[in-house]
Amino acid sequence: MLTFLPLAGLGFLTHPLFEWGMILLALLLGVSSIFLSYFRTHKRPAPLLLLLGGFVVIIAGHTLLHGWIEAIVVPVGGLTIALAHFLNYKYVDSCSTETHFFHLKHRRHAGHLHD
């Protein structure tokens, strides 16, 4: 698949400088998003720690590992970052319904009984 990228005019996607630039951009966007939510809303460190841990895994995978093991470790870092954003989303209380399956906290309201 990578051999066809230059034919499609997308050869720049395989350049290491582009890849590191995208990692840096994702790090800046992720930290700003979760960092702001941490201070403005939930004050829970788990999303921020998962985000930073995921980027450590990605950077370590790119710099220390090669071959098939890199192809396994780097996506694990990406999934860790996705989990960080998912937890942040739930901690900000973005969920519109209290009985939503993934909702992390349920409040008791008059007329509603929760176990």
TrEMBL record:
User: Is Flavoprotein among this UniProt entry's keywords?
Assistant: no
Q: A Pfam family for this UniProt protein?
A: MerC
Transmembrane spans:
20-39, 46-65, 71-89
Molecular functions (GO terms):
mercury ion transmembrane transporter activity
UniProt KW keywords: Membrane, Transmembrane, Transmembrane helix
Give me the Gene Ontology terms describing cellular component: membrane
Which InterPro entries does this one have?
A: Mercury-R_MerC (IPR004891)
The answer, when asked if Amino-acid biosynthesis is one of the entry's keywords, is no
Protein name (record): MerC mercury resistance protein
Q: Which organism is this protein's natural source?
A: Mucilaginibacter auburnensis
